[in-house]
Amino acid sequence: MSFDSRKYHFYLLFADTAKGKEPWTKNEWTNNIQPLFDKILKYSSYYDKTGLGVYAYTQRPNSEYYDEVKFGKLRWNEKSFEKWTFSDEEKERQFGSLDCWTPMRTVCEKIDSAPDICFSILNEQDHPQKGKIKFDFLMVVAIAEELNYKGTDDIRELSKILNAKRTVYKYRRWGSVHDPEKNAQWSFINSIQDTTSFGIYRAETLDIHDTKFDDLKFEPYWTTIYGN
Asked: pTM, whole model, 2 decimals?
């Protein structure tokens, strides 16, 4: 099965959070986020071959420029979690994004298949115009159809933990999607791995944060599973 054609249960979580409760903070990740994803990832036979990619950065002293933090290879284990998560006192490092593949990318390339499960967290507080953001972070979760596990109940539980403003679902392929629904305001021209907030909503602008959140049109393109 090619990467592009594999089909997924695809979720987007638009979430706000209190300071110190972000999913990348050590306490929140350890106590709430990681245990729930651990349950989800175990639906794959490749659980022990899960890989993580984390983008974080530090600002150079007295400079507008940043340097990426190098974590080395990260796996789904306590040693890697301890390495990349953020303490409550963290001031120097800034979190950008996380992505998780089960199995990891190198295995996917070897078996020529998109992952069984993929999720990512994107820090919207990283937006160049912080004052206009409509949600603090975006989480993307994709679960392959063949696992016979849709994951809706667990994603609802995750949405509750993350204080999601709304969580939505659709069924889609891994690869580029040009949806034939003419009334749809949502556009996914890249693979699931490339999903970001920028460019996914096509009402009047490429930046979803230029649209009031309550004015975003989800139905009928999406099924809302959490939130109003």
From this structure: 0.93
